[in-house]
């Protein structure tokens, strides 16, 4: 019954708009400290191609990390095609960001991922900005997947990590440790240094080096934002152990 309720387009619109208004309320009532804003300002002026990256658990204040107005490139956010994604899409539009719907394949079914990748590449080519949650839509938490790096490679766009934290907040016990900021506190907005995309002919090792560099930068600034806000650091999901290498010696031992 709840799924049917949340799947209703009118309900999604109303809830999404309310969330968007709450996002705006928190944004204007928080005393923000900005760190490394100079890294993003050239992109606000339309200089260069960029993919903004923020962890799934912190997307709710992503609008504070971008500028909206005349002359600023249009920002679009990749939102999954789930029921919850419909609500997030309306919330994003409320704060000024456009959306592209799509997500990776699940159980053999493409959920608009290929077409979404094409739309994002076209948007970047037309001078726009794409925002993605590299660990979305289902994790593992705070681990960068290949999608943003693949898009950066195809579009020739730099990757920029973004994060925020507030002193007043609730951290949910969800897979992404979703952070709900509360109004009337202090907060930090942090931008990472732009990361160059892998070359079109990059090897797997070179591609992985860019992915790992983005993940490391995103973890760094998320932890820095939490420290500045005076809150506990949200930790990433543990890394999965590497597959066991069955050497000849191990085979003999068995």
Describe this structure in words.
It is built from eight helices and eleven strands. The longest helix is centred in the last third of the chain and has 26 residues, at 204-229. The protein has helices at residues 2-7, 9-29, 41-44, 83-94, 113-125, 147-155, 204-229, 248-253, and strands at 31-35, 50-53, 75-79, 98-101, 103-106, 109-111, 129-132, 158-166, 169-171, 179-181, 186-191. 39% of the residues are buried. Helix 2 (9-29) packs across helix 4. It is an alpha/beta fold and 254 residues long. The protein has a seven-stranded mixed sheet, with helices on both faces. Strands 5-6 form a two-stranded antiparallel ribbon.
SSE order and pairing:
Blueprint: H1 2-7, H2 9-29, E1 31-35, H3 41-44, E2 50-53, E3 75-79, H4 83-94, E4 98-101, E5 103-106, E6 109-111, H5 113-125, E7 129-132, H6 147-155, E8 158-166, E9 169-171, E10 179-181, E11 186-191, H7 204-229, H8 248-253
Parallel strand pairs: 1-11, 2-7, 2-8, 3-4, 3-7
Antiparallel strand pairs: 5-6, 8-11, 9-10
Helix pairs in contact: 2-4
């Amino acid at each position: 019954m709840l799924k049917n309720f949340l799947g209703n387009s009118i309900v999604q619109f109303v809830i999404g708009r309310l969330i968007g208004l709450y996002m705006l309320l928190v944004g204007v009532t928080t005393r923000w400290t900005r760190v490394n804003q100079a890294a993003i300002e050239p992109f606000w002026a339309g200089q260069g191609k960029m993919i903004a990256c923020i962890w799934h658990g912190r997307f709710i204040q992503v609008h504070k990390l971008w500028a909206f107005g005349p002359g600023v490139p249009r920002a679009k956010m990749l939102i999954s095609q789930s029921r919850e994604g419909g609500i997030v899409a309306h919330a994003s539009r409320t704060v000024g960001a456009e959306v592209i719907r799509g997500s990776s394949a699940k159980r053999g079914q493409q959920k608009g991922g290929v077409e979404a990748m094409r739309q994002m590449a076209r948007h970047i080519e037309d001078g726009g900005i794409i925002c993605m949650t590299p660990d979305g839509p289902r994790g593992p938490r705070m681990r960068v997947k290949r999608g943003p790096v693949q898009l950066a490679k195809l579009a020739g766009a730099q990757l920029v990590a973004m994060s925020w934290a507030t002193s007043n907040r609730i951290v949910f016990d969800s897979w992404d440790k979703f952070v709900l900021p509360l109004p009337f506190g202090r907060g930090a907005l942090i931008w990472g240094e732009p990361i160059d995309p892998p070359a079109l002919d990059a090897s797997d090792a070179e591609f992985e080096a860019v992915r790992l560099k983005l993940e490391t930068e995103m973890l760094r600034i998320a932890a820095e934002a939490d420290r500045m806000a005076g809150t506990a650091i949200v930790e990433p999901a543990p890394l999965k152990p590497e597959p066991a290498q069955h050497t000849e010696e191990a085979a003999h031992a068995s």
